[in-house]
Design brief:
By secondary structure, the protein is of the alpha+beta class. It folds into 4 domains: 2-205, no CATH class; 215-357 and 364-408 and 579-599, no CATH class; 411-567, no CATH class; 611-737. α13 (411-429) packs across α15 (474-488). It is globular. Bound molecules: zinc ion. Zinc ion is lined by residues 350, 352-353, 365, 549, 553.
Length: 742
C-alpha cells in the first residue's frame, strides 16, 4: 500500500487512485455472480473503449451483423447496440456492415453488472462538504443509458482480461504513460494477498484527514500549518540542512488566481530554509475573493510563532536551534502590502533610497545617489511619505526582520519580468530611435528558434520567437538575458543598444555567480548604475520607473545574501503553481489544498533529493581508447549532485575539464565507483574572447570557440568541473557557463 501511496503523490489524482484500488480488487477477486450476470443482455452500453480491447469484443443478441457492431477507430469508440452503429471519438458514425464480421465466439453481456450499485465510499464516510459521501458524485463514471455505473470487470458489455481492464482504466482516466509505467512498477512488487488487502477508496488509502479545521480570518478561509510543523518534517528528511545551530528562514507571500471564471485567489504564506535549496512549504493557506485584510489578522499566527521561535528557539530530538527570519521574498506589490508602504507607482515608493520621484507621464526615479533608507529610519518613520498613514507593519514586531534589509528586491520579478521584458517591448513597440524593423525582428526570431536544439535539456523551456515576448515566462526572459540574447542580438541591435543590453547581462551574470561575485561585486554595481543612467538617455527619461531604478540597489542584496538565486522568487513561484493544481473543484478550495498537503502532496520529499546516478543509452559505437576497452559505453549520464545532465549529443555535450572547454564524445563506466567512470573528451583549441566591452568575456568564462583538437583524451568523470551552453555563432560557437538547472 505504501508503494501505491507514493504513486498517488506522483500522479496527484485521487480519483484515479480510487479507481486503481477498485480495479485491483476486481482484477484479483472476480465477483461470484459473473456467470449469472452474463444471462441478461438487454442493456445498451455507451462508453469509451481502447482500441486494444476490441479485438475480441462480442456483443449479445447479435442475430445479424447489422444489429450489433464494433468498430475500430483511431482512439476509442462509442458503442450503441440499438442503433447498430458506432460513433468514433470525433462523433462520426459508421454503419456496422462496413466494419464488422460476426464471430461465433461472441458471448453474452453481463447486464446485471450495470445495475449493481457500487459504493466506493463505504470504507470512509465524511461529514463535511469537501468530499460527498457518495463517491459516484465526484468520481466520473462510465454510465450506460439507464445511468448505472459501467463496471470495470466487464465494462460496456465486454469481457475483459486483467490486462485489458488496466488498459481501459488508463484510457478512461486519461493516464499519462509515465504514470501508468510507474503504476506497473508498483504492481509488480505486489503479491495477491497485498492486492486483496487494498481498500476500495482513495481516502482510506491516503489516510485523508476526516476533519480539517478551516478558520475564517482576514476575510477568507484560512488554515495555519505553522513553521515548527515543517521544521520537524524537514529535520527528519534532510538532517544535512540542520548542520548549523541557527536556522535562517525565508518567507514568501503572493497571490495567485485559482480559476479563470472567478476572482477566488490563493494567498499562502510560504516558507523555505536558507540551507535547503528549492524546498518550500506552506506555513499558512488563505483563500478568498479579496486580498487578505487586515494584514495584522492575516499574519497574526505567523508573527506569534516567529516571536516564540526567536526567543525560545526550536528543539527537536535533543538538539536546539535558534531561528530567525532571514528574508521576505516577494514581488513589489506584496512587499508594499507587508511593509505597509506606498505602492511601487507612488512618489516615495523606492524601498531603498529616500528620493521623491518625478512625474514624467509616470513616476520616475532619476537620482542614482539619493540617501539610503535604513531599518532604523523605517522603524521610526523618519520619512513619513514612504509609509501608509495610520498603518504599521506587523513584521516590525520581529527582532530578526529589518523592514529594509530583510526585503531583497527579487530579481525574478524586477529584472526578468520587469526590465528585460521592458527592453524587448521597447525594441518591438518603442520609439522609432530604438525600434527594430520587422525584418530585424524576424531575423532575431529565426535565430532564437534555431537555438532550440542547442539548449541543454536542463532548461524546461526552449527559445521562442521575439514576437511572443508578451507570453515569455520568467525563465525564458532569464534565458534570453543570460544566454541567448547576447548571441542572437549581436550585429542586429544597433551597437549602442547592444552594448547597453550587454552591460545588464554581464552585471546580472556576476550577481548570479558566486566566484564572480567575490571579485566583481563593486564592478557590477558600477555597471548597473551606468545601465540605469544610460537607460534614460537611450530610451527616454520617462522609462526610469521603479523597476529600472531599483536595479542600482540589487548589488546590496548580493552583498548581504550571496548570489541573487539565494533569495529569488523562482522556487516559490514554482511551488505556488503546484499548490494551485491541488484545487480540482470550485467548492472549498482551502479545504482541498489542506487535505491534499496533509495527504502528502507538495511536501518536501527525501526520495527526490536522494543521490541519483544514472547511465543511459548503452552503445558500442566508440570512440573507445584501447586503454579502456573493459569499460561499458553510454551516451547519457546523470548525477543529481553534479552538474546535471551529460550527453554525447548536441546541447548537453559541452563541458570544462582541467580548465579546457571541449565536447564529451563518449561516457565510460569501468566499475561501480565514480572514480572508475570516465569521459572521452575532445578539446576546443582556439578559445578566444566573445566580447571585450564592458569587460573581456574571458573574465566571465565566456568564449568564442571553433576548432576542435581532433584528439580524444580520457578523463575521470569527477574531473568535469563545469557545464557550458554552446550556442552557434557565425562559423563557430559561443560557450557560456550554465548557471541554472531549470
Ligand atoms: Zn532608490
Amino acid at each position: 500500500m505504501q508503494n501505491l501511496e507514493k504513486y498517488s503523490y506522483r500522479t496527484k489524482r485521487r480519483r484515479v487512485v480510487s479507481a486503481v484500488s477498485k480495479l485491483l480488487s476486481e482484477i484479483e477477486c472476480p465477483t461470484e455472480n459473473t456467470k449469472e450476470n452474463t444471462e441478461n443482455t438487454d442493456e445498451t452500453v455507451t462508453g469509451p473503449l481502447p482500441v486494444q480491447t476490441l479485438s475480441h469484443v462480442t456483443v449479445n443478441n447479435a442475430t445479424t451483423p447489422d444489429q450489433n457492431c464494433v468498430a475500430l477507430a483511431d482512439d476509442y469508440i462509442t458503442q450503441d447496440n440499438a442503433k447498430s452503429t458506432v460513433s468514433t471519438a470525433d462523433g462520426e458514425m459508421y454503419s456496422s456492415s462496413d466494419y464488422f464480421v460476426p464471430h461465433e465466439s461472441w458471448f453474452d453481456v453481463p447486464a446485471d453488472l450495470f445495475s449493481e450499485e457500487h459504493s466506493l465510499s463505504q470504507d470512509y464516510n465524511f461529514d463535511d462538504g469537501d468530499i460527498p459521501d457518495d463517491c459516484a458524485e465526484w468520481i466520473p463514471s462510465v454510465a450506460n443509458d439507464s445511468g448505472d455505473e459501467c463496471d470495470g470487470s466487464s465494462a460496456c458489455g465486454v469481457e475483459l482480461s486483467d490486462k485489458d481492464k488496466l488498459v481501459q482504466w488508463a484510457v478512461k482516466y486519461n493516464i499519462s504513460q509515465d504514470a501508468l509505467s510507474a503504476l506497473l512498477v508498483v504492481l509488480q512488487s505486489y503479491d495477491t494477498s497485498q492486492i486483496n488487502n487494498l481498500p476500495k477508496d482513495s481516502r482510506t488509502l491516503l489516510s485523508t484527514e476526516r476533519h480539517v479545521d478551516i478558520g475564517q480570518k482576514a476575510g477568507g478561509d484560512y488554515y495555519y500549518f505553522g513553521v515548527q510543523y515543517w521544521l520537524s518534517i524537514l529535520f527528519q528528511r534532510f538532517p544535512e540542512a540542520f548542520d548549523s545551530s541557527h536556522l535562517k528562514l525565508l518567507i514568501n507571500v503572493d497571490g495567485i488566481p485559482l480559476f479563470n471564471s472567478s476572482s477566488m485567489a490563493l494567498w499562502p504564506i510560504l516558507g523555505s530554509l536558507m540551507t535547503l535549496d528549492s524546498c518550500p512549504f506552506p506555513i499558512a493557506v488563505f483563500c478568498s475573493k479579496k486580498k487578505p485584510e487586515p494584514l495584522d489578522d492575516y499574519v497574526a499566527d505567523f508573527i506569534s510563532e516567529m516571536q516564540c521561535l526567536e526567543n525560545v528557539g526550536f528543539d527537536c530530538e535533543g538538539r536546539h536551534f535558534g531561528v530567525s527570519l532571514h528574508a521576505v521574498i516577494c514581488d513589489a506589490p506584496a512587499r508594499a502590502f507587508l511593509k505597509c508602504v506606498k505602492s511601487h507607482s507612488g512618489y516615495d515608493s523606492c524601498e531603498r533610497c529616500c528620493q521623491r520621484g518625478e512625474w514624467n507621464g509616470k513616476v520616475t526615479f532619476p537620482d542614482l545617489s539619493a540617501e539610503l533608507r535604513t531599518d532604523s529610519n523605517f522603524q521610526y518613520k523618519e520619512f513619513p511619505d514612504h509609509h501608509l498613514p495610520t498603518l504599521s507593519s506587523p513584521l516590525l514586531h520581529l527582532n530578526s526582520c529589518g523592514l529594509v534589509s530583510s526585503f531583497p528586491l527579487d530579481y525574478m520579478h524586477l529584472v526578468c519580468l520587469g526590465v528585460m521584458r521592458r527592453l524587448v517591448h521597447l525594441w518591438i513597440c518603442g520609439p522609432r530611435s530604438t525600434k527594430l524593423s520587422q525584418c530585424q525582428i524576424a531575423v532575431v526570431s529565426d535565430k532564437l528558434v534555431s537555438l532550440q536544439s542547442h539548449i541543454p535539456r536542463d532548461f524546461a523551456r526552449k527559445p521562442r520567437t521575439l514576437q511572443e515576448y508578451k507570453t515569455w515566462k520568467a525563465t525564458e526572459l532569464r534565458q534570453f538575458l543570460i544566454y541567448s540574447g547576447p548571441v542572437v542580438l549581436r550585429g542586429i541591435l544597433p551597437t549602442t543598444l547592444y552594448e547597453h543590453f550587454l552591460a545588464l547581462s554581464v552585471a546580472i551574470r556576476i550577481l548570479l555567480t558566486q566566484e564572480l561575485l567575490d571579485h566583481y561585486l563593486q564592478y557590477a554595481q558600477d555597471l548597473l548604475k551606468y545601465f540605469v543612467a544610460s537607460f534614460g538617455v537611450i530610451y527616454g527619461q520617462d522609462q526610469l520607473v521603479y523597476n529600472v531604478h531599483s536595479l542600482i540597489h540589487i548589488p546590496d542584496d548580493a552583498k548581504k545574501y550571496g548570489t541573487l538565486d539565494c533569495v529569488s522568487a523562482f522556487q516559490f513561484e514554482t511551488f505556488l503553481g503546484r499548490l494551485k493544481k491541488l484545487v480540482r473543484r470550485p467548492q472549498q478550495p482551502c479545504t482541498q489544498i489542506v487535505r491534499r498537503v496533509l495527504e502528502g502532496h507538495c511536501q518536501p520529499k527525501s526520495v527526490e533529493r536522494a543521490e541519483t546516478v544514472m547511465f543511459k543509452r548503452p552503445h558500442i559505437e566508440g570512440p573507445l581508447p584501447v586503454t579502456h576497452v573493459h569499460c561499458s559505453q553510454f551516451k547519457q549520464y546523470f548525477a543529481s549532485s553534479d552538474f546535471s545532465f551529460m550527453s554525447v549529443s548536441t546541447g548537453d555535450n559541452c563541458f570544462e575539464i582541467c580548465g579546457q572547454i571541449g565536447l564529451v564524445r563518449n561516457i565510460l563506466r569501468g566499475g561501480r565507483d565514480k572514480d572508475q567512470c570516465y569521459v572521452v573528451f575532445e578539446e576546443f583549441i582556439d578559445a578566444s574572447s566573445y566580447f571585450s566591452q564592458p569587460l573581456d568575456s574571458q573574465s566571465l568564462c565566456i568564449f568564442l570557440v571553433q576548432k576542435l583538437s581532433g584528439v580524444h583524451t580520457v578523463f575521470p568523470l569527477n574531473a568535469v568541473t563545469k557545464k557550458y551552453v554552446l550556442l552557434p555563432y557565425k562559423s563557430g560557437f559561443v560557450a557560456v557557463p550554465q548557471m541554472h538547472k531549470s
